[in-house]
Amino acid sequence: MTKISPIVEVNMHSEGVLFVSADVSFASNSFPKYKLGADNLILEQQKEGNLGPPLKDVVEQEASQLLEQHKRLSHKHLSVRDLASKFDKNLAASAKLSDEAKIREVAPLEGHLLLKKLRDALEFLRGCVAGRNKEDVEKAISMVEALAVKLTQDEGELIQEKFEVKKLANFLKQVFYGIQSFLIESWINCLNAFVKFDDLDY
């Protein structure tokens, strides 16, 4: 006796099956993880590896760098200011030396006039006296002439000294103006650093 089983036909509707393309890109290569939050709410856990440093840490780091830069600029400003002060004192000293040289320049001119008047007076006396007195007058005239020669030599040294003092004064002026320009530039950099620091958004 042959047993006949019923034939069950299952019709698969191909239009109801959706296939996933291989070109689809997912936001993550793994399944998301969830946790139970307050009031039994299901919350998705964020991956710590994909998060950058907190904004507060970034701002604090930038602020620390700006403060460090400000300290360096402040120390540089102090050293430059001290250096400029020293050059300012040297410049004043050189100007004083220049004024003293001018005074000393006038003194030899007056000395020459006095020696000329003295020599003229001695020449007049030499014609009025004789004997021992005349010898003394001639000796005095020789001393006046020697003094005039010495005064002329001192004038040459004074001119050279005046030239050196003027040269030193001009050099100190150039250096001082250079230091002053550098000081102004340092101040500008310092102010720019403060402006950047104030513009930070905490």
From TrEMBL:
Stomatal closure-related actin-binding protein coiled-coil domain location: 106-174
InterPro entries: SCAB, SCAB-ABD, SCAB_CC
GO biological process: actin filament organization; regulation of stomatal movement
GO molecular function: actin binding
Domain Stomatal closure-related actin-binding protein actin-binding positions: 55-102
Domain of life: Eukaryota
A Pfam family hit: SCAB-ABD
Protein name as annotated: Stomatal closure-related actin-binding protein 1
Organismal lineage: Eukaryota, Viridiplantae, Streptophyta, Embryophyta, Tracheophyta
